Amino acid sequence: MHHGIALYRSRKIHIGNQRMGDGEPVLIQSMTNVSTMDTIACVEQCIRIFDAGATLVRITASNIKEARNLKNIRQELSNRGYHFPLSADVHFNPSIAEIAAAHVEKIRINPGNFARDDIQGPFLKLLAVCRQHNTAIRIGVNHGSLAERILEKFGDTPEGMVESAMEYLRICQQQGFHNVVVSLKSSNARIMIYANRLLQMRMIEEKMDFPIHLGVTEAGAGEEGRIRSAVGIGTLLKEGIGNTIRVSLTEEPEQEIPAAQKLLEAAYRTNIGVTGKPTLIKPLETSYQRRKSKKTGKIGGGLVPVVITRFPEEPMEEQPTATEADYVFVSDHELINDLPGDRRYILTAESWLLEEYPQETFFPLFSLKDFTDYGKTSDVLNFVLVSPDETKQALELLKAPEVPACIIYLHETSDKSRKAFTTLVKDVSFSMPVIIMASYNENDRERFWMRTATELAWYFIDGYADGLWLDHPFADNDKLSATAFKILQATRARMTETEYIACPSCGRTLFNIQETLREIKAATSHLNHLKIAVMGCIVNGPGEMADADYGYVGSGRGKISLYRNKEMVKKNIPQQNAVEELLHLIKTNGDWHDRS
Ligand code: SF4
If you placed Cys at 61, which of 67, 147, 324, 384 could pair as Cys (CB 3.0 to 4.6 Å)? Predict the structure, then answer.
């Protein structure tokens, strides 16, 4: 069953033997990261990706030789019985694109660097070649590499990304070339979501219906990479946007496929049939604005969203740890007298009423009915549990509370509950802070990350919620708060960790990026005020490392260049010392502190 609000209905296109758009299942793809000149390594990696469940693989073609070798790769794959389509990733050179178009089923070009001012001439030539070979095209815009003329006019904004794609899509439309898919990617999931929402609205306005490819670039690895991808991709899929996805992880490419499958499962978007005309989906935010809730205790009023977890099974540390939840819910009355200090606790209203607890650190949790019926409440902070079905009642009863209170809103996945929640937070006369509480019982960790990020990110992307409470009957409480903090970080609602921007690597990468990322993380994970990029190549890395404070970029075999913001500060240093040099650079710029 589909749970999105509405569906953007794209046209159906063909990429080799695969179809995309117009009710077709969302297609999963990945990209090779071995050298395109190593035919056998490339073929074997493609096979691993296909065997994992992808139905399209992208291969970099950074020069004429690589573009020509795509023919051998295609041939060898066909010889081995793999007829799934291949896509060539071409960044800079229209003539490379023309050669590649003759050998593979799809070409990806980046409008930011495909051609400079005269886009019409080279692009028309490419369309002619693609038409001749029945090759599809992806217009693949990257937030970090917009063309100069777009930047001058729009800045590096979602509008700029949309316009960058629309220039090319309009030519396709005029030329009657419809075998086109479009993508707007960014390492910042919030920007990527706004850009894609805007794109589908703009396409509908201009009577276009090209399928949309979704991806968050440089998402990283592990839990962080999966959550960041699911925040961007999952949010949009649930809103009915997206026909093909790539979860790009700095891991082996075949590991992206189960992650993508679980993400799709979380968004309930596989195998759905879509009928009807495209609808302009409303309301979907396309720029960030935090809801103006009233500051209540240390919650709301523009403060970063808080995290709540239940009391852990394991004993708690005497002092709170850096990533511990801000509030701990204690349901068992027996435990209350032995709780470690320096924390804020939420008790059930029944427990709280039994004794006089310190007002500044113990707060009651009421049901909506009990909150309005009970005579006694906290003078400092009360929590009120509200289910989607009680939204209307909550709006009536809690508009002008006599005591300070926050809502704990029970998350449900239905469209109905999303609408109910939106009604609540959009009511300008209602200003109580709202914290989302979501319960899961997934045992598979990857599935848990995909579901939580896919279902919960929009509350923070759209600036509506003031906190997050994740619950799970068996999960360790530290892990739950870690996931909650990662969702807040990926939605840019609250930064608690060093932000890593790591490219997934491709045939252009000449060093072991996974190992390097692990090494850099081990040394810098406590620097939570920094964004550090680890990029595979000097060709696209600097442009795509977005707003990183420091960059570690491969610049040739055994050579690394280091960046501070957008400026190269160390050129071609030996790879053996490069991590050490990066740490030295961070220290000399005064951005280092020791772990506490
Ligand atoms: S930045 Fe990474 S993924 Fe992008 S082209 Fe360079 S090596 Fe490939």
Answer: 67
